[in-house]
């Protein structure tokens, strides 16, 4: 699993369902992996996005 793929799935989920729909289980479901599988690639969950202009990460194609 690639970090960019996780980020793109997360951004898509936020765009579609908003912050209330965002959780590790729903991201994992989009990627067809267990929710805990992503921690190895992105670290522990944050309560808010990093304070940088590129917090959305890579360019995600639709």
Automatic annotation (TrEMBL):
Gene3D superfamilies in alphabetical order: Homeodomain-like
Keywords assigned: DNA-binding
Segments passing through the bilayer: none
Compositional bias annotation for Low complexity: 44-62
Signal peptide: none
Name of the featured protein: TetR/AcrR family transcriptional regulator
Domain HTH tetR-type: start-end pairs: 6-41
Region Disordered, residue ranges: 42-62
Upper lineage: Bacteria, Bacillati, Actinomycetota, Actinomycetes, Mycobacteriales
